[in-house]
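thread: overnight batch results

M.L. [08:02]
morning all. the overnight job finished for the chain we discussed friday. pasting input first so we're all looking at the same thing
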Amino acid sequence: MKRRMLGILLVGSLVAATAAMAIPVTPDPGPADGIDVGWYRSTGLDTAVDQTWWATRNRCVPDTLGERLICGALGYLARAAGRTFEAKMSDDAGLPLPAGWDLMTTKNASFIRSAHVETPLDLAAVLDFYRASLGQRGWTETNGALIAPDRAEIAFTTSDGPATLRLVRQDNKTIADLSLRKRWKVTAGIAPKPGQVKLMLGNETDKAAVITVNERTVRLVAHAGEKLTHTDDAASEKSDIPKLDLPSGKHKITVKAEGSAARSRELEIAANETWGLLVGPDGAPLPIRLY
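M.L. [08:03]
and the structure it wrote out:
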């Protein structure tokens, strides 16, 4: 009797689900439902540790009620797994990362530990999170912090070296850049020219991509420059990694991967910093603080 009843219920559920698949719905701009992840590890002779992580969230966009039900179920499982993944990423990065981010990159080399996070949380909430988390780690704020409604910048002293937290509000999200400069001497070829910034470009996808920085366009074949995450390759003048010397400040970036819509944004870089910009899944721009 129980088996028969279960069969009836399953058949009824399938009939209902099949009917629901045909009912159109308005797309639901809800939370992201999956995570794309990349990890690079190089073994250069001059570095004990050189690891880079990146992760972006993607969304299930349903066209019918049935697809929305499936998306909802998959999204619930993905978000539950995502909370565990977020905690693991914070541990692996060695830096606190606010929960609920849409995009994150981290770098751990012999001379820097950095994290770039983009989250829908408002700036005040992100600032409170970092102040509490970094205080628990024994980091001490120095005088002269800049706190404004749309940006914040705080310097810290730590037992491992000087650190900086920079928060910017852009396109209804908060962009957080946290970096700790270790006392190890930087590898030659990584540091920018004094007073300027260096931007390295790469494409980690299987398709060609175009990156426009301000008014300069760089075309990248599949996987060109993706080893900018490896210190030895990033430092080498013989690598295929495009390297741009730029003034400090805000730079307009547009990324267009083959088969994906163009994505534009501003990337703010302070003097004497080096960054990488990878083309990620669906043409997502992945900024990585390298120095």
